[in-house]
Structure prediction request, 202 residues.
Amino acid sequence: SGVRAAVAMRGEVLTLPVEHGAVRNISNSPGINERAPAWSPDGQWIATIAFNGADEDTTLLIRPQVAAMPTAADVKIINLGPNYHYTVVWSPDSTKLALVDKTMSIFLLDLEKENEITEVASNANDPAMGTRTEPPRWSPDSQWLAYLQEGQDGSACSRVMLYSIVDGTTSPATDGRADVTSVCVFVIPSIHMPLRHTLVCR
Prediction:
């Protein structure tokens, strides 16, 4: 709704008012480090990445934001495995999340399919890049996920790949002859191109 923002501070997740209201600590989780809060586009959920230490499994916590202070029973807890995850990106329809772990592998979490997790790409980029890696981008209809893939088919250049949510197939959007450094935005279909999305890259 644009009236509050979610931030991480010292392992806790806070929501802050843009103008009026109180700061709320929605995590209250001493001993657990929570990072990368991501508010769902419909404003109903906040997803965060939580871990106990470098060798502990990573957990995705999804808290409802209908109530001012969700209880522990309201939180969706999803085990993501041993690899630390950098990025959480909600789909525009707020039913799916794209996740990127420390190996630069990309995963799809589907909340409508009992939190089913599907690997979209393995080692898509150099793990040394860490949080500097360009995050995946969703199409406005939540049917496509665009991401950068390094050095395929003997090329040293990154290319843009498109993953179809409908059938689980992946296809290149660029030919790999020139290096692509950023997947910028999907352009929403217009009356001139009603059935197509245009992907703007650089």
The longest strand covers residues 33-39.
